[in-house]
What we know:
Bound molecules: NADP nicotinamide-adenine-dinucleotide phosphate
Radius of gyration: 38 Å
Number of helices: 7
Number of domains: 2
CATH superfamily of the largest domain: Dihydrofolate Reductase, subunit A
Strand content: 15-25%
Helix content: 40-55%
Amino acid sequence: xxxxxxxxxxxxxxxxxxxxxxxxxxxxxxxxxxxxxxxxxxxxxxxxxxxxxxxxxxxxxxxxxxxxxxxxxxxxxxxxxxxxxxxxxxxxxxxxxxxxxxxxxxxxxxxxxxxxxxxxxxxxxxxxxxxxxxxxxxxxxxxxxxxxxxxxxxxxxxxxxxxxxxxxxxxxxxxxxxxxxxxxxxxxxxxxxxxxxxxxxxxxxxxxxxxxxxxxxxxxxxxxxxxxxxxxxxxxxxxxxxxxxxxxxxxxxxxxxxxxxxxxxxxxxxxxxxxxxxxxxxxxxxxxxxxxxxxxxxxxxxxxxxxxxx
Length: 310
Ligand SMILES: NC(=O)c1ccc[n+]([C@@H]2O[C@H](COP(=O)([O-])OP(=O)(O)OC[C@H]3O[C@@H](n4cnc5c(N)ncnc54)[C@H](OP(=O)(O)O)[C@@H]3O)[C@@H](O)[C@H]2O)c1
């Protein structure tokens, strides 16, 4: 129990690789240094062999003694060795090859991930439309569910607050304009309580109200359905139907929506009683953002953020 404690190495793999690399470089430089010393001694020896000992005294090429050629050849080999240690090793050594390979692999991986993302999106749309067509076999071909883009539109505080006492908590003129601009001409799907928070139906939009009540009375032109599926069914010809709230309907539709048009109001709202679900960055990808400061018409700063399902 109290025996000698076994030493545990605290050096991790990266550190070990660095140490090995440093040792390898030291060995390479040492060999180059020895080569240099041997070259100097060898050159002196070649000169002495020819001039003092008279070896090959009469052997010349183009009038130049043979030892000059021998020294030049050796010098060339030394330069080659030098280049290998300081230049080629850096750019074309095994480490360099590994780096290039890693780079290529990571580029390929990015491309594969992008393709996968595209396939998954396409697969989801096909599955949605197949499921719809199977459950609605009598639908005319032109009415079959096509790839429409179900979009949630919402304004939420930093704490995801969206309402209080069945009303909005803020009045932001430009956000209302933004809402009008992007929903005009489309179907807008909402819960009964949100519908009742409007003084009257909004112009130039087809209202679809979801309620569990059987005889819920609405003005002419407003469609009443008893569940979210029927609401989507009623909007099937629209290429971009909007879910406009409130909290209950957002919660039920966030997992099937394709797009989010979020107005993020940069404030928190104590006392709010209705909230938007958390926007999960693993599921939603931000594709655009436009920020507005607070001013005399806008008590709070806010940002229009568009997300698409990843
Ligand atoms: N900030 C924003 O962008 C924004 C947007 C919209 C709304 N809001 C706010 O949100 C609040 C209202 O939201 P909320 O959550 O209280 O109500 P809501 O979602 O608008 O409506 C809830 C009602 O919808 C019906 N419903 C819900 N799920 C259903 C289902 N599966 N099948 C059939 N009917 C269903 C029920 O109606 P019945 O009770 O009749 O059965 C339910 O009471 C308000 O404060 C409003 O101002 C904010």
